Amino acid sequence: MILAPSGGNHGGKQLRARRAVAAGFAAAILPAALALAGNPAVTGAQHSAASRACPWLDQSLPVSKRVSMLLARMTLTDKISVVTGPAASQPIPSLCYPGLNLEDGPAGAGDGLTGVTQLPAPVSLAATFNPSLAAKYGQVVGSEERAKGETVNLGPTVNIDRDPRWGRSFEAYTEDPYLNAVIADADIKGVQSQKEMSQVKHFAVYNQETNRNTAADNAIVSERALHEIYLPAFWSATQQAGASSVMCAYSTINGQDACQNQDLLSDTLDQRWAYPGFVGSDYGGTHSTVASADAGLDQEQPSPEFYGQALQTAVQNGQVAVATLNEMVSRILTEMFDFNDFNDPPAGSASATVTTAAHQAVSTAVAEAGTVLLRNSGATLPLKADGGGSVAVIGPAASASPTDAGGGSAYVTAPFSVTPLQGIQAAAGPGTTITYAQGLPTDTSLPQIPASALTSGSGGTYKLTAPETGTYILALQVRSQSATLSLDGQEILSDPATPPVSTYSAGVNLQAGQTYTLQLSGGASSATLRWATPSDLAPGIAQAVAAAKSARVAVVVVSDDTESEAADRASLNLPSAQNELISAVAAANPHTVVVVDAGAPVVMPWLNQVASVLDAWYPGESNGTALASVLFGQTDPSGHLPVTFPESLSQVPASSPSEFPGENGEVLYSEGIDVGYRYYDASNETPMFPFGYGLSYTTFRYSHLTVTPQRVRNHTSDPSPTSCDCNGQSGNLVTVSATVTNTGKVAGSDVAQLYLGDPPAAGEPPRQLKGFQKVTLQPGQSTTVRFTLNGHDLSYWDDTANGWVVPDGRYQISVGDSSALANLPLRGGFTVTRSLGARYVSVAAPSAIDVGTAGTVTATVVNDGDYGLRDVRFTLNVPSGWTVTPVGRVPSAVAPGQTVTERFRVTVPAGVQTGTASLTGRITYKPGGRGASTTGLIEASASVTAQYADPAISTSGLAAAALGNR
User: What is the pLDDT of residue 499?
Assistant: First the structure.
């Protein structure tokens, strides 16, 4: 049934207007840039003119100097333009400002741009466990974005894949923070090696599409889970990969919108990490002017709803300090100078063809290396290319309707697409016959549900009477607005109306004569309901069964084309009647191979009926080429799962509605740090396939584990949040090595993985990935893999200490090729005998102090470590004009296990304005361990209200020091 269309945003990113650099702009800026770059073709007169017009183009000057020179010449309007989309993309010739062009690009240049490379989905990249390949992936993205005239690549997406229903799972990498950080670093470095900025996204807790960009997507998450699970990839991206910028998210985190979240932007990104880059909003993710600017948002995209004139007015009225605006602009300009965009702006155009054979080869290599062999009973794979008999290729996804990519802003328009059928046909040699049976109708070919079966009610409600018993396909086609479809109150489809798919389907079992309620919500007026009955499906499935019976091997290609930005999946089932198709084919041919093209886990009720299963993810433009290479054994399937595959939806960590997608305006992250395989291990749950799992066409043996030293005294790597050692690569404490041997008859690759188990006192999951190394070996060949563990690897986040802590006790080492104990044959460990432990301070103050009087404030420092604190200094920071006097003797040392409290007398002078101020206790010390000479810092704050004893006296507000504002 067709319903009348209506307008509306589909919920994805808005298509960016093209921003080619106009010839007039080039004529105004480029001579000046060339002159100050020292181009010999530029005359002395031109150089002099350039120096006078835009002296900040002089590359011999420090970037900070160039920024301050330009900032001094900018008007308020100029500054507002730089922090406001789309004005930020417009050149300002008088300032030689070239504009800042932003483009979606987690999987390649998006937004409908043509002549680009469609790379495999980022989840496929993560499945390679190959940082070198990730760097090449990034190089392709950065090169093509810049050649299209873009300045900033909006990617990668490094959000944790908390739940397999998340619509953007394919666009992210993994459920594991360590793998996430390693792949992200390499990807970002690859992008930025091409002079293209990378805007890592979405900071920081953004793990579902349901209710996104509304207050109802309020993630209630602990500080520990934030720092251990959701922030590590962002820390690594900003601190180690040097990402130019960060995109704040659509989500709300613990009651604060991400793009005005003080804890994330100010306290974490600015203060704790000292991040020098800029922060841009997700598109439409800004929800305030003053609060977002004060929290640390530097640029609003895509339109000036809260910045632009609103921000200019706020600055003029004193609501936003000029210094804050200057800092926002400076951060953006600093990155532009660092990337040489003033002197050498991207010169490409949106219409240019930028894909190359080399780029396409990278796409193919990632698709091959990311393919995961999940099952291979009876060595059904690899297939014989020559003289292999007949192969029946089955399924719409094999030819009629292949799925190469996920939907939404990460979708990339492919210059070509090799279907699985085409790839298999091209790879099959003489003597191998390839036949094809579609098996099922494509979703777009399904007829509308006839009036004889469907009656319309009010409010998008319909009654469907089933004419026969069996499996039906129900499909939802939308044109301009997202919509959801429920069957008897259970949501079965959510169609976000994002490219490339506009028709989504689900297989359902209905009983003849029974009437069911269908409920359309959202963009119901632009939706069409389609279907296929069991009788409609029977002929196609029968043809597929006949093809399978007559072939030596049946290859069924299935896909999930419902994964997209702006909508979460209603279930983990394959769309359409693909499960029924697989079961029918498997019953006809015991040598059935299933190939899954999907960006996230799917349930496999037919798993034990088939011989082999390959997960090819969303493989991009080279789909069939890469698949055939793996099927015929030209490429060993070396991919390993970056996410856990559950047996069913009820087994996922966030299994209750309060946890996903949330209830009553809150999404409870009650699983805490037990995300992904951590949950399955901690709960003694056995998933269908564990994280890190992947088979090969050969076999491997692990042996000769060594762990040195066996006893560790952690005294050189202070895990406090102010120490770079805690998060960096320095301070290695333990070395682990093992031997990997190819015990099979063919060459192959495996991913050696190191898992660390902390002492029980840490309260961590049983095992966590802390190292991996991909090895390729000839038959009989051995190699040694080596891993190092530093102070941060051994630490956990302590909320009380507000920092990282290394606990004493026994650490367990496990080495193998998946997170499951059955695949971790090597076990060992080491003991930390002495540790710096937790050091933290708390400040207690009266709720109010009368003006002209004094109150007592206490600062308590706790040393839970095995080392004392030397040269201890207690200070209490108060607003200007207030006075602080220590009460009693200030200790100069805090012994191991000791708690020391210092008291201060704080006086609020007469005549100050009333209001609330922040008092910050700061403790500096020498860590106390042998070889630890750096100064440590711990601090905490408390609020106190200055008030007049007589309420009748003026209470006009106190201008307290604003800690944390830029």
Answer: 87
**pLDDT (0 to 100) of residue 47:** 57
Tens of pLDDT, residue by residue over 80-133, are 999 999 999 999 999 999 999 999 999 999 999 999 999 999 999 999 999 999
Q: Which stretch of DSSP H or E encloses residue 686?
A: none
**Amino acid code (one letter) for 902:** E
Show the domain range for 495: 444-531
Cβ(241)–Cβ(235) below 8 Å? no
Can you give the CATH number for the domain in which 930 is found? Answer: 2.60.40.10
* Residues 803, 938: Cα–Cα separation, whole Å: 9
8 Å CB contact between 91 and 329: no
Q: Are residues 810 and 866 in the same domain?
A: no
Plot region of 92 (φ>0 → left; ψ -120 to 50 → alpha; else → beta): beta
> So what's the pLDDT on residue 720?
37
pLDDT classification of 424: cutoffs 50, 70, 90: very high
Q: How many Å apart are CA 436 and CA 155, to the nearest integer?
A: 38
Q: What is the CATH number of the domain that holds 178?
A: 3.20.20.300
DSSP summary character for residue 146: H
CB 299 within 8 Å of CB 244: no
Residue 263 in any domain: the answer is yes
Report the distance separating Cα 48 and Cα 32, nearest Å. 9
Phi, psi of 324, rounded to the nearest 5 degrees: -65, -45
31: preceding bond cis by omega (within 30 degrees): no
Q: Which residue shows structure tokens 């004060």?
A: 294
Number of separate domains in the chain: 5
- What are the angstrom distances between the C-alpha of 896 and each of 73, 837, 862, 875? 56, 9, 9, 21
**Sheet with 515-522, side-by-side order of all strands:** 454-456, 461-465, 515-522, 483-487, 490-495
The reply to whether 663 falls in a domain is no
Quick one: 173 and 298 in the same domain? Answer: yes
- Does the residue 21 lie in any domain? no
* Least confident segment among 88-92, 556-560, 592-596, 837-841: 837-841
Please give the distance of CA 945 from its chain centroid, rounded to a whole number. Answer: 41
Residue-wise pLDDT tens digits, 791-843: 999 999 999 888 899 999 999 999 999 999 999 999 999 999 988 788 888 89
Nearest to 718 by CA among 455, 934, 498, 440: 934
Classify each residue of 394-424 as buried b or exposed e, where b means 16 or more C-beta atoms within 10 Å of its C-beta. Answer: bbbbbbbbbbbbbbbbbbbbbeeebbbbbbb
DSSP 8-state code for residue 314? H
CA 760 – CA 322 distance, rounded (Å): 51
Task: Let me know if residue 82 belongs to a domain.
Answer: yes
How far is residue 263's CA from residue 785's CA, in Å, rounded to a whole number? 40
Length of the chain: 966
Same domain, 724 and 811: yes
